[in-house]
């Protein structure tokens, strides 16, 4: 499909630079089938789902994966996006032309790394020196990797260390937050429990590739970056049992959705999964694992707007986004939410 079909005009003032407080006070636009759109709030979620439904969350934890350093007199910026092994990460590098294989980069707090292989996508492997885990080094030298549409408007600060982390964060490895889950609070989880709505977790370490624009003119020419994920056997079994009992599987975010669909067999059974996925969902895709999605509002011409258009239909999502823009909904990572029930 032509990528320009997924374009729309977004006023810059609709981009949220900070989250609302409390988190579950964010607005939520509900699109259920062909029914009229409904303006609600995230805290209304227990009344919008049914007993027996299951929300699936991503328990990845965002690491401070943005680094600023030097090679000689040249300033080098690096955003880690995929772990290769204990000491080596692929990174998107600013001023990458100033680096050659074997160069050493000095980051703050005594953290150093050597530039190794250059990859087809332009990223570079960085091998970190020393014995401490790379995550420990990043806590000293790195900062939270806010999306460029926020970081380009204000500096990252200490508040982002908690604001850009979900309450489910348990497993280090993401360089972008699974932002749909940023809206959840202990009070909301208690209300969901009381309403008989189940919850499960999986792990998908979100990479910086999620922020990259689609540069191709046709979706068939776009290549997704691979991300590592895991669904254990017990979780898969419980999800299949819930669905067999009539419950709906509602992905809390596109990252959870993409991993569930990667793990699904042709008959819709969710199988255990561990490994990389580069699934790219566009209109025409037949969903197998999920029955609904809670997600924030996404960039024009992004792979994520293509995904929600695949779920609901392009014309329906164009109407959803036109309503959201007209009614003042806040967009992107720190913005409001939508509940999409095809």
From TrEMBL:
It holds the Pfam family Queuosine_synth. Pathway: tRNA modification; tRNA-queuosine biosynthesis. It comes from the Bacteria. Keywords: Cytoplasm, Queuosine biosynthesis, S-adenosyl-L-methionine, Transferase. Its EC number is 2.4.99.17. One of its GO terms (molecular function) is S-adenosylmethionine:tRNA ribosyltransferase-isomerase activity. It is found in: Cytoplasm. SUPFAM superfamilies: QueA-like. GO terms for cellular component: cytoplasm. It catalyses: 7-aminomethyl-7-carbaguanosine(34) in tRNA + S-adenosyl-L-methionine = epoxyqueuosine(34) in tRNA + adenine + L-methionine + 2 H(+). InterPro entries: QueA, QueA_dom1, QueA_dom2, QueA_sf. GO terms for biological process: tRNA queuosine(34) biosynthetic process. Belongs to the QueA family. Transfers and isomerizes the ribose moiety from AdoMet to the 7-aminomethyl group of 7-deazaguanine (preQ1-tRNA) to give epoxyqueuosine (oQ-tRNA). Monomer. This is S-adenosylmethionine:tRNA ribosyltransferase-isomerase. The lineage of its organism: Bacteria, Pseudomonadati, Pseudomonadota, Alphaproteobacteria, Sphingomonadales.
